Amino acid sequence: MTAPLIPAPATQNPGRQVWPGEAYPLGPVWDGEGTNFSIFSENAEKIELCLFTPEGEEERIELKQVTNHNWHCYLPGVHPGQRYGYRVHGPYEPDDGLRFNPCKLLIDPYAKAIEGEVDWTMAQVLPYTPDGSDDADYEPDDEDSAPAIPKCLVVDHRFDWEDDRHPRTSWSDTVIYETHVKGFTMQHPDVREDLRGTYGGLASEPAIDYLCELGVTAVELLPVHHIIDESFLNERGLKNYWGYSSIGYLAPHAPYAATGETGEQVREFKGMVKALHKKGIEVILDVVYNHTAEGNHLGPMLSFKGVDNPSYYRLSPQDQRFYMDFTGTGNTLNTVHPSTLRLIMDSLRYWVIECHVDGFRFDLASTLARGLYEVDRLGAFFDLIHQDPVLSQVKLIAEPWDVGPGGYQVGNFPVQWSEWNGIYRDEMRDFWRGATPLSAFAGRLTGSADLYDDGRNPRASINFITAHDGFTLRDLVSYNEKHNEANLEDNQDGTDDNRSWNCGVEGETDDPEVLELRGRQTRNYMATLLLSQGIPMVLGGDEMARTQGGNNNAWCQDSPISWFDWELEPFQERMLAFTKRVIRLRQDHPVFRRKQFLTGSDENGTGLPDSWWFRPEGRRMTRRDWERDDIPALGLFLNGQAIPYPDRRGERIVDDSFLVLVNGHHEAVPVRLPSPRYGAEWAIELSTAEPELLPGEWTVPARGTVHCEARSFTVLKRVEPRQEGPAEEGEVTPEVAEAAPEVEA
């Protein structure tokens, strides 16, 4: 055991009134006359609340009331804007997982606002004396970290929401746009300069008008919980741009606020949500409840590590000096402990109830589902979510993997959850570069029933081709290899499993044939994504062919590498127009966004199956055909009259019928259309090979032939109703559909 650590003396206020206060709720609560403070620690021996003046003078108040491990007091006359932190006393015994050090000022885990960033140059924030050895953490450090640590703030939670309501867009109508609060508007010429890169910038009229014109229904924001950069990034002149380094789970990241960092960030965040809601756009937050910014046993002491290390973190059962690391970041939050689960649930409810957020995407969600070791889809975390009257009603999206054993859980999350479908991403990338069979493509295009037909439906699949982590869509067709030199890790960071194809030239080129092919490939990916069954997620910027210069791991690039460049070249304008057109096609036609899986049979008595796959010669795909690798293209009939469920008013849904013709081959393929039973005449709706074609610009009769260009995606709409007639050889009638079912897709 080490000698007791004693922090530097602080200012005393003999006139300060200290009342017992209440144990709940945790965090600071201002009631108009004073503020109640409450903080959880099961293993502490003493806790001091530290109040700071604007000049940095510190006053310490010992919390003498303890209820259910919550240390609390009430301070009359303490109002919004008050700066504060905590010092927590107890044993410093790393081998037992105890790392209390009152010389280190701590951020309140329940803070509603935090001033800004750690100033690594002002004081030592490590709880031990660094000497370069692996055992350095055994010797506690006695330097006061207060000058370096951002202070927490008491806030006024009041906000005029007027008549704000959650849009509650149905899953089938949802198109998600993944973007970054700062990067989206940082270089936007029409956004007021002082608002660029902020919550206010995203709430501005030019930003919201763009989203509305694009046609997306929800923004999925990269982390906005208060972020702390890693110290080594500061040394390299870089920043944690993505923000997967949370420290304040109830506090919006202060540097994203245009109006100030002394509590104004809360009001500005709420204003952003309110502005987006007015235009019917939902707000989904990417949340990081699997780890914090405090790293491993040699990491800094910022909050949880000093408040109650063994309660908040998973420690190794073999040696509690070390952390279990299912996240690849050095630590894992201890969701087995009830107080950590309570923090997560309180955080989620706060963002929904107080900030009107519409849903969450859970980073490395498998970590949250782990018991002692195994991922448990029936674990306590899921039980709490499903039973909660607030959280069970919002959109819940899992990133269904982590880096631990058995962590890849795509398809295994419970009912009510949607998942980032990593298999969709991989197989669609492989298909358009000629590396996977048609059967894999067909299964993903039609909703991944093999993964989710377990009581769920197509909305369980969040389909994506690209995301923040990896290549942009333009880079996916421009680079075979990553080019991450700007990250200053000798290009060793980032995945090598890109499943990309540069179309013949690595990087930028002026070769017109290569550029034409790249343009077609980006359109192929976008059309595939937006017209697949399931929920599409577009990576922000892909609609305008944004590039990161081949950087597939731009997590530390708070720079033009990551920021949107709004000065578009003509080919980018064309890509933007094409994306808008495909989103509109999806939104106008429920046959592309069904709530139930396709069956390949006639369940509505329409005389035709709800879907029908066919070979280039116009004949039905058989089971044997799906096993072949020499079929260069295929077609899909989608029956708009075979939607088996009513609309919200109970009326039957009747849509147009379509043919989707897909050629992933490197040569053009003639595709013969089916017999008149499926439609007497068809009109062009969309072609990735000829994006300038307008809907209806040409038509083709039943049994006619459509010339499908190499690597192209074509959509035809039925313009003449089907004609009754006998089935041709190779076709399936409703009467025999059950006996010869379609391949599961």
Short key terms for the protein model shown above:
745 residues; single chain; 6-stranded antiparallel sheet; 28 strands; 8-stranded parallel beta barrel; alpha/beta; 17% strand; disordered C terminus
Protein topology:
Layout: E1 29-30, E2 34-40, E3 46-52, E4 58-62, E5 65-67, E6 70-76, E7 83-89, E8 92-93, E9 98-99, E10 152-153, E11 176-179, H1 181-185, H2 199-202, H3 205-214, E12 218-221, E13 225-227, H4 231-236, E14 246-252, H5 264-278, E15 282-287, H6 304-312, H7 338-353, E16 359-362, H8 365-368, H9 380-387, E17 395-398, E18 418-420, H10 422-432, H11 438-445, H12 449-452, E19 461-463, H13 473-476, H14 512-530, E20 535-539, H15 570-588, E21 611-614, H16 623-627, E22 633-638, E23 658-663, E24 669-672, E25 681-687, E26 699-701, E27 705-708, E28 712-720, H17 734-737
Parallel strand pairs: 11-12, 11-20, 12-15, 15-16, 16-17, 17-18, 18-19, 19-20
Antiparallel strand pairs: 1-2, 2-6, 3-4, 3-7, 5-6, 7-10, 8-9, 13-14, 21-22, 22-23, 23-28, 24-27, 25-26, 25-28
Helix pairs in contact: 10-11, 14-15
